[in-house]
Structures are given as C-alpha cells and as structure tokens.
Amino acid sequence: MRLGGFAANAVIAGAILWSLVTTDVELSRLVSAGPRIADFLGRMFPPDPTVMREIVKGSAETLRIAILGSVGAVVLSVPLGILASETMVAPALFRPVRTLLAFVRAIPLILVAMLMVGAVGLGPLPGIIAIAFHATGMLAKFYAEAIDGVSRAPIAALESAGAGPLARLRHAIWPQMAPVVARDTIFRFELNLRESLILGIVGAGGIGFYIQTYVRSFQYDKAASVTIAVVVMVIAIEAVNVALRRRFA
Amino acid sequence: MSAAARIDDLSFAHPGAALPALERVSLSIPSGESVALLGPSGAGKTTLLALLDGRLQGWRGRVSVLGTAFYPDRAPPRPCRPDTGFVFQEFALVERSTVLRNVLNGRLGRMPPLRALSGQASAHDMTVVRAALADCGIADLAERRVDSLSGGQRQRVAIARCLAQEPRLILADEPVSNLDPARAGEILSLLTGAARMRGATALFSSHQPDLARRFAQRIIGMRNGRIVFDVPTSELDEDATADLYRDAGPMSGIGLRAVR
C-alpha cells in the first residue's frame, strides 16, 4: 500500500517535471510582458459603452443558440437515453449505443463547430448544431443513468399488473427520474450557454464573434464591454441554475 | 370447486444458487379460499408467490393459474396478468406519485395501450379505484404523495392498488411483516375481507402463525423449499408449527409463543 502511494507520488512529480523541462516556459518573458499587459488593461479602461446594441444583439443570439441547441440535445437524448439504459433494452442494444455516446462526448465542441461552419456556413446554425451534437453525448448518458437509477420494485409491480413497457416507463420510471432529468437538463443548459459564448470565435454565431472582432481590431475598450457582459451573463446563469437545482434536490 | 392455482411437482432454483428454492412442490388452491403460507425465512414462500405471479421462469413441473397454463420458458400472456394481484412486501409504490395515481396504476393492465400510456382513467376505472380506496380506508389520502405517508398507510395503498386490478387471485408476500400486531390484524382483515367480498382467492405468506389461524381457512407450512404440511386451519398441529421454525432463529416465527 505504502509502495503504491510512493509510486503514485513519483509518477505525479515526474509528470510535472517532464512538463516543466520539455515545455518552453521562460518566466523571464512573463516579467518583460508586464508593461504590455498594463498597456492592454489601460486600453480596456474605461470600457466603451457605445457597443451596447452589439452586446444585446450578441447576447440574444448566444441565448438563442443555447436554447435551440439544448432543445435539440434533449430531443436526441430522450430516445438515445432510453436505448442506452440497461433497464429498458437488451445488452446487445445498450452497449453499442453507450459506445456511440462516448465517441460523441470525445469530440471537442470547438472542432464540431468548425466543421459545421465549413459545412453550413457562418452564423448561429452551425453553433446550434454543434451544441446539440456535443451536449447529446453527455445528456443521453445522464438520462440513461437516471432510468437505471430508479427503484425497480414499482416497475415490477406495474409489470405484474399487466402494464406494457411504455406504460411502465410513463408511470413507474418517469415519476422517479423526472427530478434527476430536470436537474441534469438545467445543468447541461448552463454548460451550453457558457460554451455558446465562445462559439463566435470560430464564426458559429453569438457574442463571441464581437470579442474576436474587437480584439483583432485592437478595440480593447469595446472588447472590455463585451467581456463584462459575458461575465454578468455567466454569473446570472449560475445563480438561476443554483436556485433551480436546489428546487429539484 | 375449480382451482384458482394448481401446481404439480414443481422445482425451481434461482440462477447460481446451490440449493433449490422449491423442491417437488404440489398443491391446489380452490377458488374463493383464503390460504396462508407459513414458514421461516428461506422456506420458499416468496419464490412460490412470485412464480404464481408469473415473474419467474426456468422451473420444472406444471403450473396453472386461473385456468391458464404457465410455461417455464416465457412469462404468461400479458392480458391475463391483471387477473392476479400481488401485494409486495416492501409495497413497491411510486414514492413521488400521489396515492390516487398509484392505485390507478393497478388499472393499467385493464386499459387499452394508448390510454394506459396517457394514464387517462375511464369512468369505470375511477369507480373501481374509488371503491378500492374506500375499502382500504384511505379515500381521504387520495391526493397525498406516497412519500408523505406512514408505513401502515403505504401498506393500505399497496392493497388498494392490488384491488383496483379487480384480481381473481390475490397474492400477498408477507403483507404485515413490518407492522405491530394490532395493525397486522387490521391489514390482514382488510386483505382477506376484500378478497371474500369480491369472490377472489387469497394466498398470503406470513411468519405469524396466530395471524394465519385468524385469517386463513387453510394453512400450508413450508421449510427448505418443500411443503411440510397442508391442512385446514382447524386441524393445524401446534407441534408441527413449532417444528417449522425449529433452528430458524428467534425472529423467524414471531408470535409462535401465542400458538404454543
């Protein structure tokens, strides 16, 4: 046991050392960057309030991407969650579906968004598709776990009373899993909204587009205004999410 | 009188178990009778009841319930499932649903598939459910959520759900194991009374010989997966009952002292 602990510590220390030694980390550059950082910050303040229209427009688009992407993910996740649940289907079906979901989760969102921008062009549509696709990998897994986590006894009771599989899903499984599904869906919506904020950087719509535009054109005061809006939005979403999750606890 | 359940030379072992849960069991239960299954834990009572409910496969022998022959390789056809009602030991209720919804769940097997899915009850369904709630003394709890009820109230909901099925055979797995003696008497009186009123057959398992005597016309004693005795209640031999629980531990025959 002690040997195992020592080995684990040695591996961790080795990984840190390897990263430090082989990565080109020159702390002196960080010191010399001080004036430049001060210059950026100086140019950011005061934030330019004239971009309020762009902020409102970008925030609304980000919100729409998150909402539509989340709806798409829920629509895809309901059937896939059922098919990934060992309570509902045979191992021959749920195992390949789980593998498929793991594969979907493994593809980074930004990569999906870039591919979608290439496929369908700039704007919110590639963002919505990317969010729906990426979130399904996690949400369908959560839904399957919610189905499998319910008490089996009421399901057996309804089966004994002659209820069919869909009636059992509706009246024995759903009432038990509903709070978990609501909590997980709200959590996923929060993640979707956070992720939508940066999708604009690759041209997939939303407020991120303005951040990218203002930074690239050295309009740091405008970028600062957009960044403040993003921070406010994230804090607001988190507060709403915490309140809702407490309700479903 | 026709048989509500008939079993011939039945044996069954749970997957992976070294010993059989039931061994060469034969019995016939006439329609309308109230029968108690008595025996210590591990005697095979729950297995026998689950098998009669059509929930177990892989057995050997012959089984027929309410005139339908069971086959060891498949569950009985769904249309005949509602005719057999089951009261589960741990109630098996949907905790977050209301009492009314739980009792309505007992009607699902009698509804057309689409109505079962939507849960929309017909006027007849509601009449049956209201009667079951009233018979179990829980009509005033209909809108309460199950997770806000006491153990005794939950037990009544479980019985009401079973009665809402309009079963011709009622199977109950230790329906009073978690209740004090006064409550246990009440619940068994309710169960056997409701079965009698509906002309249904009742088969319940119990650890309590005194309650079995009070509420059953016939008592079947089981031990180690076999039937040890099968007698009318009036002929129950106290020594045979005591033998049933011999070496079975102090908690296996609650109320045994009352018979001795």
Automatic annotation (TrEMBL), chain A:
Localization of this protein: Cell membrane
Regions crossing the membrane: 65-85, 193-211, 223-244
Membrane topology: Multi-pass membrane protein
InterPro entries hit by this protein: MetI-like (IPR000515), MetI-like_sf (IPR035906), PhnE/PtxC (IPR005769)
Entry keywords, A to Z: Cell membrane, Membrane, Transmembrane, Transmembrane helix, Transport
Annotated ABC transmembrane type-1 domain residues: 59-241
Gene Ontology CC: plasma membrane
CDD domains, alphabetized: TM_PBP2
Example GO molecular function: ABC-type phosphonate transporter activity
Family stated for the protein in its record: Belongs to the binding-protein-dependent transport system permease family.
Protein name, as recorded: Phosphonate ABC transporter, permease protein PhnE
Organism the protein comes from: Halovulum marinum
Lineage: Bacteria, Pseudomonadati, Pseudomonadota, Alphaproteobacteria, Rhodobacterales
UniProtKB/TrEMBL annotation, chain B:
Listed SUPFAM superfamilies: P-loop containing nucleoside triphosphate hydrolases
InterPro entries: AAA+_ATPase (IPR003593), ABC_transporter-like_ATP-bd (IPR003439), ABC_transporter-like_CS (IPR017871), ABC_transpr_LolD-like (IPR015854), P-loop_NTPase (IPR027417)
A molecular function (GO) term: ATP hydrolysis activity
Keywords: ATP-binding, Nucleotide-binding
Assigned GO CC terms: plasma membrane
ABC transporter domain residues: 5-249
Gene3D superfamilies in the record: P-loop containing nucleotide triphosphate hydrolases
Pfam families: ABC_tran
Name recorded for this polypeptide: ATP-binding cassette domain-containing protein
Originating species: Halovulum marinum
